[in-house]
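Hey,

Quick one before I head out. I ran the complex with S-adenosylmethionine overnight. Inputs first:
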Amino acid sequence: MPTVISAAAVAAARIRTYGSPPLTVLVFLFLVLSPPPAMAEPDDGFAEKRAEMIAVISALAKRIGKVSGKGVMDEGVMEVMARVPRHEFVPEERRDDAYDNRPLPIGFGQTISQPYIVALMTDLLVLAPGASVLEVGTGSGYQAAVLAELARRVFTIEIIDELGELAKKRLAGLGYANIRARVGDGYYGWPEGAPFDAIIVTAAASHIPPPLIQQLKPGGRMVIPVGEWFDVQYLTLIEKNAEGEIIISQLLPVAFVPLTGEH
Ligand code: SAM
């Protein structure tokens, strides 16, 4: 059952979610886990591996659809997953593993998320072509690239300097002109870019950051893993309705690296 919170309560600050849904499946992101540029499917020697990855994501979606609420992924999301060159976002020596359905290390104790979870989180945002999206946790830049193919504008923040700078260069090199990337603490969002139609947080937070709730448009959606590191974390969907009420739904257990920072 989703939890509904009034706008006044939201303004109050820290929001925590309680209770566990009836879940049967545990998905692990093993820890150390304009309109868009419309890229054609690249002929880069990885097309077959990408197709296999798509088949795995579809099969997994079907299997755990009752829990995730997404038995079938949106076609547009799957098309994008089928063409974004994931091998460009992993270290050279891991390129052959880039399309396996698992997270991979990207350095600094961080990971590029599992493809299934990238697809699921993207799908849950229900992005319209004109959407403005905030991502917290740029990492390799892969999730930002996926978002940028579906939305008009993507703002992405990374707390680790080196990763943030590397991702920025990589995304520019791949031609993603509709992504703005910067280094900082994403807990506080990106006030100058707000409000956002959608917000995605790709690191686990102990609570839902109030600044992010404030920066979400009425009618907007946020997807965030909530829970302590090494404890149960739930992928959580937050919807802000036209009246500013917040509806929180815990979807499925996951394991993400933690949201860090001074907050
Ligand atoms: N989305 C990334 C991708 O596609 O490669 C994967 C994200 S990785 C699972 C989580 C990222 O969140 C890490 O790069 C980590 O440094 C970053 N992170 C953690 N706390 C953060 C914070 N407070 N603000 C911004 N980024 C943060």
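Helices lie at 7-11, 47-63, 65-68, 75-83, 115-125, 142-148, 161-173, 210-214.

Talk tomorrow,
K.
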